[in-house]
Amino acid sequence: MPALERELRNAERRAELQRQRAAALTARLDELLPTSGEERVLDVGAGTGAFAFAIAPRVREVVAVEIDEELAARAREDAPANVEVVVGDGEQLPFEPFSFDISATLRTLHHTRRPELLVAQLARVTRGGGTILVVDQLAPADPLAGFELTRFERARDPSTTRLLADADLRGLFDSNGLVLRRQEVTREPRDLEAYLDLAGCEGAEREHARMLAPTGYEAVVGWYVLER
């Protein structure tokens, strides 16, 4: 398959996953992030807009930041009137300090080279007393098990950098003076073949990823609601 066609198929798969997650997010937001309707919200690593679109009806304005220009373009096509989609790097956000009431990054940190910079940027641009939502797949507490899981995820999707354990994330939050107000851990059973399809993992790379896949694989996802 030509490289361009493969990239387009992968982008469409990611967009479909985002649409599925948007529906699930809508059901959780009232509980996780109560809003007044006047908030300015930042979504870093927005993809095609799952979180931004889900929260948009509940707030005044959303700025969705995505580093991938193609994903940003897809988000822009469907964005509600109060959602602005911009191309940018979460490790170097182009916003003034204390610019947002709510800042969020969902399932982005394990694709980020310097997750400590992204968390520090979220803290910088969120006002005092504001809320930060961090959601990401978690590594096991055991370092060897964490290494093996990251190796599988990277074989499946080379954009993966490293999965962080709960203790790693809490260390990042503490170093930025963020107060943990709520935490939830969910488990997501994953059909291996569908999961490999989602990343466009094919050929020899697919066989290699299959060999590294944990038995009965399910993702453990941490949801952290923090106060700035």
Q: Which percent range describes the beta-strand content?
A: 25-35%
What's the number of structural domains? 1
- Return the CATH architecture: 3-Layer(aba) Sandwich
- Low-confidence sequence ranges: none
Element order: H for helix, E for strand: HEHEHEEHEHEHEHHE
- Named CATH topology: Rossmann fold
Q: Provide the structure class.
A: alpha/beta
Mean pLDDT: 91
Q: Can you tell me the CATH superfamily?
A: Vaccinia Virus protein VP39
What composes the largest sheet? 8 strands, mixed
Global outline:
globular
Beta strand count: 8
Q: Class, according to the CATH hierarchy?
A: Alpha Beta
Helix content: 40-55%
Tally the helices: what do you get? Answer: 8
Please give the alpha-carbon distance between the first and last residues: 47 Å
* CA gyration radius, whole angstroms: 17 Å
Report on this model:
With 228 residues, this protein is α/β, with parallel strands linked by helices. It has a single domain, classed as Rossmann fold (3-Layer(aba) Sandwich), CATH 3.40.50. 43% of the residues lie in helices and 26% in strands. It has 8 helices and 8 strands; from the N terminus they run H-E-H-E-H-E-E-H-E-H-E-H-E-H-H-E. The chain has helices at residues 3-32, 50-55, 69-78, 115-125, 143-156, 166-175, 192-198, 203-212, and strands spanning 40-44, 61-66, 83-87, 100-106, 126-139, 164-165, 179-189, 218-227. Strands 1, 2, 3, 4, 5, 6, 7 and 8 form an 8-stranded mixed β-sheet that branches. Strand 5 (126-139), helix 5 (143-156) and strand 6 (164-165) form a beta-alpha-beta unit. Helix 5 packs antiparallel against helix 8. The protein is globular and about 50 Å long. The model has no long low-confidence stretch (mean pLDDT 91).
